[in-house]
């Protein structure tokens, strides 16, 4: 991040993303993501898999962040973009379109024309894990990427929607590292929960920050959406509330 060519928030976030996609810090995740890219799923056998860490997706001045869990093996690990090319992404981006946070309801590939409006989508773990379950050590090793990303977004960031309990637990120490005060005991995850975190003014190097509204939402996994635990209306409601406190049109 000390590159003299980095001149502003957009360049800084692009530089962070470029550094992230070269990461090989977790041997198990590196081996898995690359094996999936070689073996492939039959439906995608003619495609070239991304098979690298997947960076966040969205504008450098986002007012809202959506935080998931990790890339899906045949979704983002294939396409190279968060929640793109799988059914979880189909649910998420359709909802974001309905509430005015995306320009289209579908996400299939890097060149499909999707643009997010005032919103960035990211995750606490950037490589696809076996069985969609990163280890605590892998989560902690990956933590600094999300902390750096949120630090760069901090001047404009007003809200975060966290998809699922794993993401919620992973995010809380990240928010502390990124300059907000997380109370003790830490807030508990629940669908529709809203917590407002104050900026940590004891950190003089943190830069400008506003209070941050953190919303819990059930993950957009098939396990939740197919069973009705998470309905489109439930997802729309959380995203709409987050957009409202972020001063985004929704």
UniProtKB/TrEMBL annotation:
Q: Name one GO biological process term.
A: base-excision repair
Q: Which SMART domains match?
A: UDG (SM00986), UreE_C (SM00987)
Q: Say if the entry is tagged with keyword Iron.
A: yes
Q: Where is the Uracil-DNA glycosylase-like domain?
A: 55-239
GO MF terms here are: 4 iron, 4 sulfur cluster binding; DNA-deoxyinosine glycosylase activity; metal ion binding; uracil DNA N-glycosylase activity
Keyword annotations for this protein? 4Fe-4S, DNA damage, DNA repair, Hydrolase, Iron, Iron-sulfur, Metal-binding
- Asked whether the keyword Iron-sulfur is assigned, the reply is yes
Q: Which family does it belong to?
A: Belongs to the uracil-DNA glycosylase (UDG) superfamily. Type 5 (UDGb) family.
The name on file for this protein is Type-5 uracil-DNA glycosylase
Q: Which organism is it from?
A: Rhodococcus rhodnii LMG 5362
């Amino acid at each position: 991040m000390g590159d003299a060519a980095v001149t502003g928030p957009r360049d800084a976030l692009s530089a962070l993303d470029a550094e992230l996609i070269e990461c090989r810090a977790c041997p198990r995740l590196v081996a898995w993501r690359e094996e999936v890219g070689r073996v492939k799923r039959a439906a995608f056998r003619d495609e070239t898999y991304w098979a690298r860490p997947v960076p966040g997706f969205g504008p450098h001045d986002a007012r809202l962040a959506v935080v998931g869990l990790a890339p899906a093996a045949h979704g983002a690990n294939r396409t190279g973009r968060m929640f793109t090319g799988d059914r979880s992404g189909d649910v998420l981006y359709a909802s974001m379109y309905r509430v005015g946070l995306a320009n289209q309801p579908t996400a299939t590939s890097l060149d499909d024309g999707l643009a997010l409006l005032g919103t960035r989508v990211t995750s606490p773990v950037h490589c696809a894990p076996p069985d969609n379950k990163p280890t605590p050590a892998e989560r902690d090793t990956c933590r600094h990427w999300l902390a750096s990303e949120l630090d760069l977004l901090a001047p404009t960031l007003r809200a975060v929607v966290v998809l699922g309990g794993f993401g919620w637990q992973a995010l809380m120490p990240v928010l502390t590292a990124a300059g907000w005060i997380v109370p003790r005991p830490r807030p508990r995850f629940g669908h529709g929960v809203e917590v407002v975190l104050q900026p940590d003014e004891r950190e003089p190097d943190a830069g400008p920050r506003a209070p941050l509204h953190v919303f819990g939402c059930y993950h957009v996994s098939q396990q939740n959406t197919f069973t009705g635990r998470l309905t489109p209306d439930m997802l729309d409601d959380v995203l709409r509330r987050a957009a409202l406190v972020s001063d985004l049109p929704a």
